[in-house]
## 1
Amino acid sequence: MNGVGAPKTSAPPSPPIHRSGADNEAGSAGIAEAIFVRNACKSYGVGKRRSTVLRGLDMNVKKGTIYGLLGASGCGKTTLLSCIVGRRSFDSGEVLVFGGEPGSVESGIPGPRVGYMPQELALYGEFTIKETLQYFGRIYNLPATFVKSQMEFLFNLLDLPPGHRYVKTLSGGQQRRVSFAVALFHEPELLILDEPTVGVDPLLRQSIWNHLVRLSTDHGRTVIITTHYIEEARQAHTIGLMRSGHLLAEESPHNLLSLHGLSTLEDVFLKLCMKDGVGHDNPAYVQTFNNIPFGAQYWKNTKSILPVADEDGIVGLTFSPSGDSMHGGSSTNGSSSSTASCSSSSSNAGDTSSSCGSTAASSRAVGKRRSGTFKLAIPSWHRSAALIRKNFMQTFRNIGMFLFIFLLPAAQAILFCLAIGRDPSFLKMAIVNDELDPSQGRICNYTTDCSYSMFSCRYLRFIDNTTIVQVPFKSLSDAIDATKRGEVWGVVHFGQNFTDELVVRQADGNHADNETILASRIAITLDWSNQQISLTLQRRLIEAFEDFSKDVLSACSYEPAAASIPVTFLDPIYGEKKPSFTEFMAPGIILTIVYFIAVALTAAVFINERKSGLLDRSIVAGVQMTEIMLAHLVNQFTVLIGQTALVFLFMLLVFNIACHGSLALAVFITLLQGLCGMSYGLVVSTLCDEETSAIHLSLGSFYPNLLLSGVLWPMEGMPVYLRYVSYFLPQTYAVESLRNVFGRGWGIERPEVYFGIVISFSWIFALLALSLIVVRIRKYTG
C-alpha cells in the first residue's frame, strides 16, 4: 500500500459534498467565483509599531480552477489565506467564499467545504498516521467505509510511511505529506494549500500536481496553492503574483508569458516588481529576489516532466488580446491586465491611506463579521466526541507524565500533613539549676512524697522530653551566650534557694515580701525569633508547672484541682480541646491544591495548539471554540475526580483529618473549585501567546489567592479594608464553606455553606464566558 508508484488511474472514492446547511446549494448555484476579495486591508500593531500587511488587495478565484499564489516570504500570503478561511478578519474590505462571508451559513467556511494545509505541520505528534486521519474523519463525521478507502488511496498517492508510525517519528517531508493528506482527506470543494510540495521529491511532486489537476478538472474542486517554486505554478489555471500586500498581476501562466514576451514566470515576476516602483540599483531588492531562482532553476531543468494545464487558463474564462479578463463577454473587475495591475498596485503601495480607506460597504462587512463576537453555536456531538477522544489519547500516550500529574495533588497533600501543623519537637533548652550542690557533683536528688525539698528537680521531671531536650549549664552567663549563638532556644533558671523561698511564699501568702517572690520564681528567657517554637516552649513549660503543682498537692493530701487557674474550658461545641493547626488549614489546602493543579493543566492548552497551528486547523475544519473548551473540561475533570479521591483518601484515612459533615458535600465543593481552576486556566491560555507568560500569570495569582483567601490565617486577622478585597477572590467563600463542613459538620442548608457553592458556580460561568469573549475578540482583532 505504501510503495512508490504511479497513483491509481481511477478517481478516489468521493463522499457527498459536505455543506453547512441546505442553503449552500442554492446560495452557491450560479456563482462563478469560489473566492471574491475586494479592497482588502489588514494591519498589525498600533502606533509606530503598526505594520500594514494587505493594501487594498483584489482577488478572484474561479470555481473548479487551481489558483497559484506566489510571493516572497512576508508579503501577506498567509494572512490573506487565514482571512479567507475565517481565522482572521480584514480591517476593511470584503471577502466572499462561495457567495457568503467566511463564518456564514452561505459560505460553509469554516467547515467541511474547505481543506486547509497551513505552513505549520499542525499535526498531533502523539498520534500515528492512521489515527491522525481517523481523527479528522470523526471531525467531519465521515462514514467508516469512506475513511478506510480514502486512507488506502492517500497512502498510495502520497507514498506515506506505514500507518502505525507515530507522526513525531517521521521526517519533515513525511510530516508535510501527512499534513497534505489531512487537507485532501474529506475531498472538500475548496483546497487551500500553503506550500504543500516543500521537501517532496520530483516524482511525488508530479503525482501531487496530477491529482490536483484531476480534482479541479474532473470533480470541479477549487484549489489555492502557494509555493516557493515559481515555475511549478505553470500547472495552475491562474497565477496571482503578490508583493507588499497587493497583487501585481492575476492571469493565466500562458497569458503572463505572452503579454510580457518572456520565457519564465520568474522573469515576469522580476519585471512586474521593477515596474511596481523598485529599480535595478536597489540592493535590498536584488538581495530579496536572489532567493527566488533556486526553485525556478530546478523547474527550468525538469519542466518537461510535468504536464501543463490547459493553456486557455481559467476554465470557462477567456482573455481578450489586450490581456483583459473576460467572462461572458463582460469585463470582470477582479482580473485585469498585468500592466493595469502594476500601475494600480504601484499607487496602492505609495498611498496606503487611499487604497485602504474604509468605505461604507467594507465597514458594514467588517461590522457584520465582528457582530458575531458574542454569538455561540450549539456544540456538535460528533465533533465533541472526537475532541474528547483525542484529548484522552494524548493524555495516556505519555504515561509517565500522566502519572506524575495524577499523583501530584496526593503527594502535595501528604507533604502538607507531614510538614505543617505539628508541634515542634526535640527543642534544646538550657537548664541552670543553682539549687544543686557543686560539692556533691550537682546531682539532682528529690523525693515524690510530701517533702519540701529540691522542687526544681521535681519540676523538671514533668517537662515533656519529646518536645524539650534539657541541656544543663553551670552558669547563667554561659547559658545566655549559648542562646545568643543559636545553640539552644532559651534558658530555664532556678535560684539558689528556690525550694525554700517557694515554701515561704506559699506560707506567707499575701504577706510575702518582694525578695521572696523574686527568689521563688522560675526565670525563663526565650529566643522569640521564631514565634511558633517560642509559643510551644511557653505552653509546655506552663503545663509542666501545673502538673508539678498537682503532684505536690496530691502527695500532701490536698485537692490537686486547687493548682488550676479558676478558668475552666468545657468540652467544645465544635472541634477538640487541643486542635492542631493542620485541621484548620486542611480544607483550604485541599482547595488550593486542586484549584491550582487545574490551572496548571489548562493554562497552556490553547497556547501549544495555537503555536503549532493545530488550533487554526481544527477551527477551519468546523470545530467550535465551545467544543474545544468542552472537550478539555471533560478530559481534565475526569482526571480531577481521580486526583480529588486520592487527596481525600490520604487526608481522611491516612492522616485522620476529621470531617464532621457530609463527605459527599465536601467532595462536591472541591470538584467545583477544580472546575473553577480549569476555567481560570482557560482564560490564561486565551490571553497569553507564550508558555512563559502563562506561567507568570498563573504564579502571579497564586500567592495573593493563597494569602488572602483565609487558607493560612483567619480572615479576622486582616485589616478591614483587605477583607473586602478577599471577598472578591474565587476561593475565599469556598474555603469557609469547606471548613464549616469539616469542622462544624454543617450541611448545604446553611448559608455559610451554600453561599460558597453559589460563588464557585458564578466564577465558573464568568471565567468561561470571559475566555470565549477573549477568543472571539482576538479572532476579529488579530
## 2
Amino acid sequence: MKTTKSIPLFKTLLPASLLCCAFVTVSSEAAVLMKPTAATTLNYPHALTPEKVNPAITPPEKVLGFPVGQRTATPEQINELVKLWAKESDRISYQQYATSYEGRPLHLLAISTPKNLAALPDIQQKVQMLAKPQGKSSSDIEKAIKELPAIAWMAYSIHGNESSGADAALALIYQLIAADDAEITAMLENMVVLVDPMMNPDGRARFTKMLEQHRGTAPNVDGQSMLHTGVWPFGRSNHYYYDLNRDFYFLQAPETRGRVALINQWYPQLMIDGHEMGSDDTFLFGPSREPINSNIPQSKHKWGKIFATDQAAAFDQNNWTYYTGEWFENLYPGYSNYAEYRGAVHILYEQARTAEDGIQLNNGIVRTYQQSVHHQLVSSIANLKTLAANSKAMYRDFVQDRQLVASADSPYANKSYVVLPTANRKRLEHFVSLLQAQNIEVLQLTAPTSVKRVVDQLGQSFTQKNLPKGAIVINARQSEARLLNAILEFNANIKDEVLLEEYQRTLRDGSSLMYDNTAWNMTMMLGLTALEVGEEISDNVKAYEPAALQVAAKDENLGWLVNGDDDASVAFAARLMEQGVQVRLIDKAGQLGSVVFNRGTVTVLRSDNPQHADLADKVMTAAADVHTDLHNLTQGLGDGDLPDIGGAHFRLLQAPKLAIVGQSGVSQLDFGAIWHMVDTHLGIRHSHLDLAALTRADLRQYNVIVLPHMMAKLDPSASAALKSWVEAGGTLISVDGATTQVMAGGLSTVKPLAAAIEDAAKYDLSLQREWLASQTTLANKAAINSYLVPEHISLPWLADEKSKGLDKDQLKIWEQWSAHFMPSGAILAGRVDQKHWLTFGSENQLPLLFSNHPLLMSDDESEAAVRIGVMTENKMVPSRKLGWSTLPAGQDVRVRMSGLLWPEAAQRVTNAAYLTRESKGNGQVILFAGQPVVRGATKGTERLLLNAIVYGPGLGASNPIKL
C-alpha cells in the first residue's frame, strides 16, 4: 500500500485563526482536515505592542509566529525571545537566577537606561543600606533615597497553567525596550524594572503540551473542555507538583531559592504577582480584606489603596470589570506576598482564566485569550506609573519602618524565640538555613542561661526557665523582624470580628474566610521544640555555627553507628540497603563503648557483610551523602540491660521496594510531596503506579505501596488486589482520603469516628489500656503486695460521678454537631508512643498539621503510634468524660498548638489516632489520618512516613515479600 503523510499541523501549535492556511496534504490520498467556520468573536481589536518602535529590536511575532498574546508562548519561545532581546537592547541586563528540576532556565531581566544598568551594583549597595539603616546618618539616608531609582519586581505565572501573565510579561518587556515613547524613556531614567517573566517553566511546559495535545481544528470557547481544564497532573505546579506560591519561606524548590536570593539583593519597592482564577470571573487585584497578618506594616495598606485607585482608573478607561478584596485575604505569609514583610508593596493580579482561543461567559460574551493578556499588561503599566510617582515617599516609609522594628521602641522589643538543642542535625541545620536565607540573624547560647516570661508550644507559661548551652536564639528585634515574627510566632493574631464572621459562616453554610492554613509556625512544622521568651537574649550568645561533622575511622572496628535521632539516619539505611548491604536497627536506647545512642539507631556490622570487600567505603560514602555523623562501633557489650550487639534489639532490616500510586483521582500535591521527599531525602529507586491500573499491575514487585491522599473511591477490585498483596507480606501505607478508602474497603479494622461512635466504650477501653501501659510509676503498689483480695478496683474508664458523659444517642448527635467545626490547617499536639518503631526520631509531643481529615478510632486490634492530645499534669482534676473518651484523673489534655481550632473541634479530635499500624496476614497496614508531608515543611510527621517506608518491610511485616 502506498503510504502518505499530512503536514504535522499541531506540532507547531498553529492558532485556530491561522488553521485556514494550513490544510495542505502531501498526497491526495491523505485525510484532509476540515476548515473551521469563521469565529469572528475571537477577533480582538487591540494590539498589545506599540505602533512606533525601535526597528533594531525584534518584534515578538517574528519568533513566536503569531502576535504576542494571541496564544500561549512555550517556555522555549520565551527563553529565545528574552535572550535575543538582551543581545539587541541596551536597556536590558539579563541573568539566569535558577534552573528548574527539568533543566529549564529562570530569568530575571533588569530593564532601565544604559546609565542605570551600568550602576546596578551601586544601586544594590544603596538599597542594602536602606534595608539596614542602623548607624547611618539621616543625611546619608536621604542622599541615597534621592539618588536611587524606583525598583519594581514584575513576576508572572508562578502557576504554570495560569498562562496569561507570562505572555503579558513578553508584551511588557517589548514595550519597555522597543517603544519610541517619551513617557517610557522618562520613566526608565528613574526606575529599574525587574521582570521575572516565567516563574514556573516546568509547569508551563506541561501546560503548553496539554494545549497542543487537546487542540482541534476549530477554536474552542467551552470552559469545560479539556483544552481549558487540562488533565492530571495539570500545569499549575512544578516538576514535583509543588505549589510554588506557598514556598517563599520553606524554600523547597530551586525556583524559589534562586528567586528569594535575588529579592534579598534588591528589596524591591513593588512586587507584582500575575495569576489567574476561575474562568467565569473578571479581574481581581489588591488590596486584600481581613484577615490580614498583623506583622504587615500599616504603610503597606496605605500604598495598596493608592496603587489600586490608579489601576482601577486604567480599567475604567478600557471599560473592563474588576474587583478588590472579596475572597482575597492576607493571613498566611508564605505566598509571594511575603515581600510585604520585606518592605515591598505587593499586588496580586487574578485574571479570569482563558487558556487559549477564548471563553464564552455566562452572559454569552466571548473573552479572548488576547484580552486576558491585555488586562495583565495594562495593570503592569499602571502600577509602574504609580511607583514612578511615589517612589521617594515609599523609600522613606521603608526606612522608617526598618529603623523602628530594630529600635528600642520596636513592637518586637523584649521578645525572642529559642529552639532547644537536638541531636537531629539534619532538621536543625535545615531550620537555620531557612532563616539565614531570609537575612535573619541566628545566634547560639555559649553557656546555660536563665530567662524570664517563657511560653512553650503547648501554651504553658513559666516565669523563669534555664536554657541549655547550644540552644538556638532568634531575637525578634532585628531588621527582618516582620518576616521572622510572622513565621516564628506561635499564633497569628486574628481579629474578633473576623472570628465572629468565620464562626457564623461555619454554621451557616460551611464556608470560610480563610484561603489557606491558619497555622504555619516554622518550628512546629519542622517538629522542633521551641519557646517564646519575653525578653531579648544578649548574654552568652554568638553567631550560630554548625557542629563539626563526626567521621568514623575506616578500619579496626566492629561496624558503624548513625544515631536514630537524626532524620538522615533513615536515608543512610535506605541507600546502603539498595546496594545490598545488610543493615540493622537498634530499637532501644543504649551505649556501646563511648557511643551513646537513641532508639532507632542504624548500625552496619562487618559480621553481617563479609561479601562486601569495600564495605567501609560504601558506609562512609553513604554517611557523607546524607551529611550525618558516623560513629565507630568498637564494643559489642552494652552496660547492664542495654542492648548487646547480638541480641534481639539489633533487628535486621529488609530493603524497601517502593511504589507510589498516582494519576487521576489522587491529589497531585500530596503525590508530588511524597515523591519529592523520596527523591530529595532518600534518593532511592522507586516506581509510580496508575491508580486505575492497580488490578492489572504485578504488585509482587513491591514490598511497600503508598496511597497518597485521594478524592476518588478505591475500586473494590483494587481493594481486593491490595488485600491479597498485604496478606502476602506487603506494607500498605495510606494518607488522608486514601485512608478513608482503605477503611471503607475493609483493609483495616480501624474505623472513622462516625462509624465507631456506636462502640465508643470499646475504643475508650483501648485508650485507657494504652494510657496505663505508658505509666512510669506504680499507683497501686500496696494492693500488689497485699495478701488480701482488694474490695475495690478503680476502673480507669469510669469517669467521676459528676461527669458521666453522654449516652449513645447523645454521642451520635455530638459527633454530627462537632463535625461542622473541623479545622482548616491548624497545628495540633500529638502524643507519641515512644515504644513504637514508627516513631523513631520523634519527641514525646509531635506537632500535627491537621484539617478536615478522618479521625481514626483504634482498638486492641491495631496500634496507635500517635494520638491527638498531649497529657499534662494537673493534680486538681478528677477523671472525666470528653466526648467519646475518658481523661485520667490528675491530667489535662492540650490539643491546640497554633491556628484556629474551635472548641467543638478540639473536643472532637482529642484522643483520636493520627497514625495506626496493624498486622494483616504476613503484611501490615499503616494509616495516616492527615498528610504527613506538606509543602516539604512538616519534617516531624515526614519522619513517621520515612520510618514506615524504609523500616516497614523489616520491622512490621512478619514475612515481607522477597524480591
